[in-house]
Amino acid sequence: MADRLAVTKGHGTENDFVLVPDLDGALGLSPARAAWLADRRAGLGGDGVIRVVPTERAEESAVRDQAGVARWFMDYRNADGSAAEMCGNGTRVFAEYLRREGLESADEFVIATRAGAKQVRREGGQWTVALGPWRLVDPVTADRDGSDARVHIGDGEPFSALSVDLGNPHTVVALPEGVDLAGLDLGRAPLVRPAPAEGTNVELVRPIGPGHVAMRVHERGVGETRSCGTGACAAAVATSFWAGSLDTGATWRVDVAGGRLTVHLLPGHGVELAGPAVLVADGSVPLALLPD
Ligand SMILES: N[C@@H](CCC[C@H](N)C(=O)O)C(=O)O
């Protein structure tokens, strides 16, 4: 198979990924190759691409430093080829792949990511990943005003929003009464002010009941997706912050277009994400088709 690239398609609540094993770290993955693999017309199609690579073979030294605790690095790329620090849904699909391939055999292990080493565990047919610690980006402004950013969608009035760091950046909007979540146009990227230097993922959240929200998401480097795991965690953190109940250790259900995620808020800014992980198909791509 030297002239072909092995690939696996998977998803977590329909946030879909192309997994590429690079088990000796020789392959590398240029931004153009990642973007081609994620392309739904010219390539295979996915919201992101995950290279499976030994942690000690990672290009970044901050990732290689995790080799003592994590054998495998989730090298996550967005659909536009850009590298992202973290992907919550991706961690579960990555864990499922490692188990299926016999690369990990335990029900609980640690994976390396650009946002640090993360513990995953399998229970009740699902994977749970510890994604914390979360962090409010501007706690002083958030405490004073209840928000630290404004989000413009289309030509309407801007919405107040809260910036939450989950290893990757998020801006969460609690939609005011009377604004229809389903009716908002996310065909264009929401405009966030002040503009975060590294860009941001934007979550639009509508409370449904106690511990229960509905969410739509526009992902950095992708566009609107049917789910975002770190976004669900950011939504739970922001909604708890607005309710004044951040430290109560609550469990949240987050409904997204692709299904339901469960978020546990833990003491000390801990947060766990649980949900499905599905490996859909395996195949290969002729290397000759790939850009350099
Ligand atoms: N879908 C992911 C997040 C993927 C990365 C994101 N687009 C970014 O650039 O930060 C998730 O499930 O968390």
From TrEMBL:
Catalytic activity: (2S,6S)-2,6-diaminopimelate = meso-2,6-diaminopimelate
GO cellular component assignments: cytosol
Compartments where found: Cytoplasm
Pathway this chain belongs to: Amino-acid biosynthesis; L-lysine biosynthesis via DAP pathway; DL-2,6-diaminopimelate from LL-2,6-diaminopimelate: step 1/1
Enzyme Commission no: 5.1.1.7
Residues the record lists as binding substrate: 15, 78, 88-89, 168, 201, 219-220, 229-230
Main location: cytoplasm
Biological process annotations from GO: lysine biosynthetic process via diaminopimelate
One Pfam family of this chain: DAP_epimerase
Signal peptide as annotated in the record: none
Record's keyword annotation contains Iron: no
UniProt keyword annotation of Isomerase present: yes
Molecular function as annotated in GO: diaminopimelate epimerase activity
Annotated SUPFAM superfamilies: Diaminopimelate epimerase-like
Coiled-coil segments on the chain, per record: none
Domain of life per record: Bacteria
Record-annotated site: Could be important to modulate the pK values of the two catalytic cysteine residues: 170, 219
Known partners and oligomeric status: Homodimer.
Purpose of the protein: Catalyzes the stereoinversion of LL-2,6-diaminopimelate (L,L-DAP) to meso-diaminopimelate (meso-DAP), a precursor of L-lysine and an essential component of the bacterial peptidoglycan.
Protein name in UniProt: Diaminopimelate epimerase
Provenance organism: Phycicoccus endophyticus
Gene: dapF
